[in-house]
Every structure is written in structure tokens, then in C-alpha cells.
Amino acid sequence: MKPSAFEYHAPRSVEEAVGLLSELGDDAKVLAGGQSLVPMLAMRLAVFGHLVDVTRIPELRGVGPAADGSVTIGAATADTALERDAGLGRTVPLLPRVTPLVGHFQIRNRGTLGGSVAHADPAAEYPAVVLALDAELAARSVRGERRLPAAGFFDGLWSTALAPDELLTSITFPVWSGRCGFGVAEFARRHGDFAIAGAVVGVELDGDDRMRRAAVGLFGLGPTPVRAGQLEKEVGGRPVTDCDAAQLGAIAVSDLSDVPSDMNGTAAYRKRVGAAMVARAWSSAVTEAQQARSGQEVHHG
């Protein structure tokens, strides 16, 4: 099939882009790589009269440190740029680690961080990382800028807290320090397919090998990415030797109530897979944290 007729716009600045979104109203849609949107348009699962392509706006691309030591990434930064950025391997390791799991190389070459996050597919990797790491999202409209916490950003299936006339401009990630480790695990039928279930994990240990901090994001297990809050609460302050990975995996999925059931598997099957992915990612993160020297950031790409 072919998409319905639409008018293409290629603004060269954020101001021009948000002006178009304000002027065109609900008939406009942001194009930020198009690796999810274009297939939906082609199958006429979505119809818009105007596409506003923001990938040519320089200020929406790039990775840079923020004043408070965090890392800010432009929303139109390509997936491949994240995969190749050596600095992110030290500051926000989960991003370059999940990127090879995002589709195929051709998709990653065109896809963008902000495009994936704003599309909010619950089986996508980037939204889970944003949620797990408590990132902050910046959105711009003709009314000005809003800063949105990740915890309230994903509010439904393919739905976010962005207003129709707002443009996601950047995402800011806190940088973890100390004895930290990170892990990623997902299961898909074929490499490049959306995950049936997956998990991203970050842990921080104190000098006595007790859990100082844990962050666990789940994807493919609900209408939105999910934080495994019960697991995070369960391990707080415990010796790492008392944290059994398999038990924690079971805890992570125990209170999930909206797990999808479809041609890829029943809800019960997805939960079993999800528990296994949490256990696998947890074990990787803990091993890395135990090997890290106190007071240093993780230096793995």
C-alpha cells in the first residue's frame, strides 16, 4: 500500500518546527527518522496531511555534558551515533549497549533517539532506558519549553505526555558514579524483531557490597515501559550475595497486570520470558559493579 497524500515540511530550526506544529494543528505529525511512522503511514494505520521532518535541524543532534554533570542528547541524534559514541560507554552505558538490539543497521542509521522515545512503542529499548535512568525530557512549543520527568512521560500505548503541538528536543540522563554496573537482556524471535520481553538494569554497590541503588526497566510487558519498583525496593541495602537473580526476576514481573497476549505468546509466557531477562541482565550488572573500583565510573563501552 501507499500512504495517503501529505505535504512535506523540512524546517531548519526548532522555532520554525514548532511554528509549523502550532499552525497546522492535529493534521501535522513530526517525522524524526520515520522508521516506525513511515510503515504505519504506508499501511494507512495512521493518516496525516502534513509531515514535519526535524532531522535536518542541527540543534536537535549531538551528545554533550550538561552543567550538573549529566548528559544531554539531542532528540534527532541517530541511533548509530549513540552506538559509536565512546563517551556514552562511560557516562550512560545502557544507551550504546541497547542500540545494537534496535532493528537492523539500516534502521539504526535513520532512526533517532527522540523518534523512538516519542513513538513510545512498549517493546522498544530506548523508552525503557529513559524510564529506568530517570531521564528528563525537554519539549518545546510556541508557548515555551517544558521539562518532563520520565516517570510521567509514557501514559499509554504509543502515547506520551507531549501535547500535539510540542516537539521533543532533548533528553538528559543523570550520570552514575561509584561501583556501578549495567546489564541488558531481551528475547526476540529473530535479531532485529521487537522484543517479546526485555530488561535493562543498573546497580550501584557500596564499599561493603550492599545494594546502594538499583534501577530496572522492563519492555514488551505492558502498554508502556515499566519500572520494576517492587524489585528495586526489595534489594535496597541488602548484601549483593543475598540477591538471587532468579528470585528477583520473578519479583519484577509478579505485579504486572497488563501484559499483552498475542501471536508471539500468551501473557503468562511473556512474564516467564521477562523474569528470565531480568535475571540475566541483573547478573551482568552485578558482576560489572563488583569488578568496578570504588569512586570510579564504569569504563565499559
Can you walk me through this structure?
- This protein has 301 residues and is an alpha+beta fold.
- The protein contains 11 helices and 14 strands.
- The strands form 4 sheets. The protein has a 5-stranded antiparallel sheet. It has a 4-stranded antiparallel sheet with strand order 11-12-13-14.
- Residues 295-301 have low confidence and may be disordered.
Which features does this protein show?
alpha+beta; five-stranded antiparallel sheet; four-stranded antiparallel sheet; disordered C terminus
Question: Short summary of the structure?
Answer:
This protein is α+β, with helices and mostly antiparallel strands. It is built from eleven helices and 14 strands.
Give the distance, in angstroms, between the N- and C-terminal Cα atoms.
41 Å
* Mean pLDDT score: 93
The helix-strand sequence is EHEHEEEHHHHHHEEEEEEEEEHHH
Strand order within the widest sheet?
A: 4-5-10-6-7
What class do helices, strands and sheet pairing give? alpha+beta
Proportion of beta-strand residues: 15-25%
Assign an overall shape. globular
- Unreliable stretches (pLDDT < 50, length at least 5) are 295-301
Amount of helix:
25-40%
Q: Tally of extended strands?
A: 14
Number of helices: 11
| Main beta-sheet strand count, sense and barrel state | 5 strands, antiparallel
Instruction: Round the Cα radius of gyration to an integer and report it.
Output: 19 Å
